[in-house]
Amino acid sequence: MKHTISVLVENHAGVLARVAGLFARRGFNIDSLAVGVTDDERVSRITIVADGSAYTLEQIEKQLNKLIDVIKVKTLHNDSAVTRELVLIKVSCTPKQRPEIISIADIAKGKISDISTNSMTIELSDTKQNLDTYEELLRPYGIKEVVRTGTIAMQKGEATVRV
Amino acid sequence: MRCFTPVLHACPQTVTKRELFSHISLDKCAVVWYNKAVSNIEFVCAATGRRPKGMFQNLSKVRMTVAKAMTECLAAEGISTVFGYPGAAICPFYDELYKTDIRHILVRHEVNGGHAASGYARITGKPAVAIATSGPGALNLITAIATAYMDSVPMVVITGQVNSDQIGRDVFQEADITGSAEPFVKHSYLLKRPEDTAEVFKRAFYIAGTGRRGPVLIDVPFDVQKAEIDFEYPDTVDIRSYRPSSTGNGNQIKRAAAAIAESNKPLILAGGGLFTGDAASLMRDFAEKTDIPVVSTMMGLGAIPTDSPLFYGMLGMHGCKAANTAVNSCDTLILMGARVGDRAIAAMKQRDDLTVIHIDIDPAEIGKNLDVDIPIVGDLTLVLGQLLEAVKGGADNSGWKEWLDGFREDKAIEPAPAGYVNPKEFIHALDRQLPHNAVVVADVGQNQIWTARNITINGGRFLTSGGMGTMGYSLPAAIGAKLADPSRQVVAICGDGSFQMQMMELATAVQHDVAVKVIVMRNNYLGMVRELQEKAYDNRLMAVSIDGSPCFTKLADAYGIANELVDSPEKMEGAIKRMLESDKPYLIEAAVEDFEKTIL
Q1: Residues of chain B that touch chain A, judged by Cβ-Cβ distance less than 8 Å
Q2: Residues of chain A above pLDDT 90, percent
Q3: B-chain residues within 8 Å CB-CB of A66?
Q4: How far apart are CA B440 and CA B485, in angstroms?
Q5: In Å, how far are A33, A44, A84, A91, B85 from A47, measured between CA atoms?
């Protein structure tokens, strides 16, 4: 079972290493991990998508809370949170194929962020599941490279995860 | 006798001459020179060359090097003894230690500095300090740090580091110690900004000594130690992400009290947290008020006197029959500061009809290894206070203790063959003569189980490396314990295998005149591994014979330590008496038959 965990940490050097190291040594599997500063520059947010049972999730939360630099840990439920991931996909593309790829990008509400004689780079932002679908649609053209940011998430409505 | 060079001190100009002199006269020091300079009043203290104690308590910042500030931090934390081993990268700090009253115990291997600090901390209950230099010095400390982490021992570890602009370039004696020790520390700091010194030390001692205790590492680069800062030690500390002490949830306390009231076969499982949480006496009050029998983990031995009629022994893989029967027969199990380690519950069966109440300061321990019905997170002292109030009287558990009494084992012991002593008989003989408040430090292996199962702890302490099972713990930890409380007898009990991992520390005991007593149980084997190979590997004994070991009494002679060989039961009483009467280090080699069993 996949869990999306939002972790607020002190914005210090070495904090990410502590968090990542904890997952490794406790045998927790990370699917994706995204880090960025919050509106308070002393605080960073790490969004982790992890795989595991309810027992594992409970242990992850408790062990994260034991790290001194961790300020807050909150597991977000997919039905009550907005989840997004940004992806850049570079596909092989002859000049003739360009309209087809542009139409896929349009359907996916993406944009063409780079173009060359034989390639196009498409920029998409969506849920992980939708991005997987679009990636499959583009695969027949020949994917040269994919870069994904990892999922970030925010609770729906007025609820927040703040210090 | 040390001579001190008068040292120039400076304090801010905002301090009036009158304030300055009143502080100095209070501390019985003399000012031989003072100059109201542009920014500071400078003065020299002639008596010791040291800053008078308490001098700047209410004054603002003072200019000094980080190295000196580090000694000021230790003094402010009440540290009077530190354990360490110097090296180039930590020399600026050692140079400042030279000018203080702080007693430095030079060990013979860094890991033992860590273990000695562990022994010291477990007796004082406060964080103790271990020091090493960069690279190999720091790396040698890791086993001690991990040992302290597993047993929740408060410790502040200070290591030297290469110059901050050289970090990451693989220079001489460089090691990423904060990175390598990360899995075994409660927290760590790489002190990069000199001006953070006071805050980092204050936080380190606070984190190590509160909540679930543990080691905190401070790594200080060489150039940072030499940097100058405006120093002021903070009185208070506030870490927004760390709020350790707490009372138990009132609702869970009520549920626990109700479960205990309904129980006919309740049982307390006492863990080492009762010592770190200073709650052993409260637990005894609780057990006596409710008339609930008690078993303990190895770390919890002595939380209730082991000769108390309410105590049914240590549980676990090497535990007593009565204790293991009790955990498998009780209807309500109350875990107090016990983390339910795998060896402790090795003999425990999972049951549906059991109500488990788990009290621990660390929420991550609750539910980790055992399903829990009533979790209570909190400081044991506070929670037991709450529980004592909530529980009205004793439960109706008539017949339960009497039934358990039937499983108590007879302590009769088979006599050893000629030329040997039975180690259990030896522990009983030691027991008869040891004062009540003695500290017994067992090593790891057969010696540990012989001691744990046969020693009486009633007002004293039983120390061992419970979680990590680190061989070579006993002698250095005993040295630390003895220094923490010189009035108590401190006895290290080890095997001939573990002794050879720590015997260099005999020199530390001699050099610093630490009157520890050492008992080496010699059976010429790594006995516990041998037993495992006998049972699980069809008696193929591989690398467990330790032939070639030296004569331990001659080795003690070489260190100038009084010693005796005890190779018959008749020699036990006299040898133990002489050992305990000695006010110097003393070593007894007890000859144990090679194939002596751990249990039986």
Answers
A1: 178-179, 182-183, 186-187, 190, 192, 207, 239-242, 362-364, 367-368
A2: 91
A3: 362, 364
A4: 13
A5: 6, 10, 11, 28, 42
A93-130 CB burial, b ≥16 within 10 A, e <16: beeebeeebbebbeebebeeeeeeeebbbbbbbbebee
**Type of residue numbered B386:** Q
- Residue A50 and residue B267: Cα distance in Å, rounded? 38
Dihedral angle sign, alpha carbons of residues B51, B57, B59, B62: positive
Check whether B327 has a pLDDT greater than 60.
Answer: yes
User: Which of B184, B242, B246 is most worth mutating to test chain A (most A CB atoms within 10 A of its CB)?
Assistant: B242
Query: Least CA distance to B213: which residue of chain A?
Result: A66
Alpha carbon distance, N-terminus to C-terminus of chain A: 28
> How far from B566 is each of A37, B182, B200, CA to CA, in Å?
67, 44, 51
Q: Does A92 touch chain B (CB under 8 A)?
A: no
Which H/E stretch holds residue B543? Answer: none
Q: Which residues of A touch B156 (CB under 8 A)?
A: none
Contact (CB<8Å) A71/B240: yes
**Tokens at B59, concatenated:** 């004054």
- Please tell me the predicted confidence (pLDDT) of residue B290: 92
Q: Is A9 helix (H, G, I), strand (E, B) or coil?
A: strand
Residue B19 pLDDT level (bands cut at 50, 70, 90): low
Chain A positions touching B184 (Cβ under 8 A) are none
Asked whether the beta carbons of residue B367 and residue A58 sit closer than 8 angstroms, the reply is yes
Test the B interface: residue of A59, A60, A68, A74 with most B CBs within 10 Å: A68
Q: Which range has the worst mean pLDDT, B22-31, B228-237, B372-381?
A: B22-31
The CA distance from B366 to B354, in Å, is 16
pLDDT at B58 over 90: no
The H-or-E segment that residue A131 falls in is helix A128-138
The model's pLDDT over A16-69, given as tens digits with 9 standing for 90+, comes to 999 999 999 888 999 999 999 999 999 999 999 999 999 999 999 999 999 999
Beta strands in B175-253 (DSSP E): 187-190, 215-221, 228-231
**More confident position, B351 or B523:** B523
In angstroms, the CA B333 to CA B173 distance is: 51
- Taking an 8 Å cut-off on Cβ atoms, the answer to whether B241 and A70 are in contact is yes
User: In 3-state terms, what secondary structure has residue B429?
Assistant: helix
Which carries the bigger pLDDT value, residue A129 or residue B414?
A129
**What is the pLDDT at residue B200?**
98
CA distance B254 to B383: 11
Helix (H, G, I), strand (E, B) or coil at A86: strand
Residue-wise pLDDT tens digits, B350-401: 788 899 999 999 999 999 989 999 999 999 999 999 999 999 765 678 899 9
Residue-level pLDDT at B167? 96
Looking at residue B349, its pLDDT comes to: 80
Helix (H) or strand (E) run with residue B103 in it = strand B103-106
Measure B241 CA to nearest chain A CA, in Å: 4
C-alpha closest to that of B144 among B169, B168, B121, B176? B121
Q: What is the CA radius of gyration of chain A?
A: 18
What is the reported pLDDT for B47? 45
**Rounded Cα gap, residues A27 and A9, in angstroms:** 21
Of B495, B451, B483, B459, nearest to B589 by C-alpha is B495
ipTM over 0.95: no
Q: What is the mean pLDDT of chain A?
A: 95
Residue whose tokens read 């893989």:
B317
Q: Do A63 and B190 touch (CB under 8 A)?
A: no
Nearest one of B320, B136, B131 to B215, comparing CA atoms: B131
Of B141, B136, B220, B150, the C-alpha closest to B184 is B150
State the pLDDT at residue B1. Answer: 38
